[in-house]
Amino acid sequence: MKTTTISPEVIEQTTRFHGHWCPGLAIGIRASEWALQEMGKAADEEIVAVVETDMCGVDAVQFITGCTFGKGNLIHKDYGKNAFAFYRRRDSKAARLVARPSIYGDAGPTLGKLHRKMAEQGLSEEEQKIWAETRAAVSKKIMESDLADLFEIKPPAGPMPKAARILSPAVCESCGETVMETRTRRFGGKLLCIPCFDAVEKRC
Q1: Which of 1, 39, 48, 158 is least crowded, fewest Cβ atoms below 10 Å from its Cβ?
Q2: Beta bridge partners of residue 50, listed in sequence order
Q3: CA distance 127 to 115
């Protein structure tokens, strides 16, 4: 069974870009697939993606949709959710895809338990085998499921993000490094970058 319209070549390229194959990457691939079908690829800044996770799926969004941090049309909100909002500037089309709780199926508790054990004390050889086989099975299921079964599609919570701006540079008066003007702080009459500001605050 093959449900995804993303070609095997693009899936392989995305996996190489990310570094490994996993359920999280599969989720990002399928969210990106929806964006391509409904909005097209981001040749420049026409398409904007707002991601609510910093996990594997974001690499798929960058690679497949063309939305990137460098262009300013990939925005990260640190909410820890498998949720992806896409906006198209020319007609204000927008939607937010939220991974359904059932996306991992019955394997969710098993993966959660093994992940915690792996982080805390490591897995036995048998557990590593179960971990790998379960992740592969879940990834396959995600790639073969209908998009409607994977994601709840909602209106975005906020307005379309503003276009990326070219900002003037400034020089931190403590370390002497160039910093984006909007990322400076003032302390004791000095213009400081965020690390220098934080260091001064800790000493006070």
Answers
A1: 1
A2: 75, 85
A3: 10
Write down the pTM of the prediction: 0.84
> Cα(61)–Cα(203) distance, rounded to whole angstroms?
41
What was the pLDDT predicted at 114?
Answer: 87
Convert 138-170 to b/e letters by CB count within 10 Å (16 or more is b). Answer: bbebbbebebeebbeeeeeeeeebeeeeeeeeb
CATH number (domain holding residue 34): 3.30.1330.130
pLDDT of residue 118: 87
* Type of residue numbered 14: T
**Selection from 100, 92, 102, 105 nearest residue 161 by Cα:** 92
As beta bridge partners, residue 22 has none
Nearest to 21 by CA among 57, 64, 69, 68: 57
Read off the amino acid at residue 43.
Answer: A
Regarding whether 181 and 119 lie in a shared domain, the answer is no
Tally of domains within the chain: 2
146 Cβ neighbours under 8 A, 6+ residues apart:
3
Same domain, 54 and 127: yes
Token couple for 77: 């909100």
- List average pLDDT for each run of 10 residues in the chain, which is 204 residues long: 87 97 96 95 87 96 94 93 95 96 88 87 89 92 95 92 80 95 91 94 78
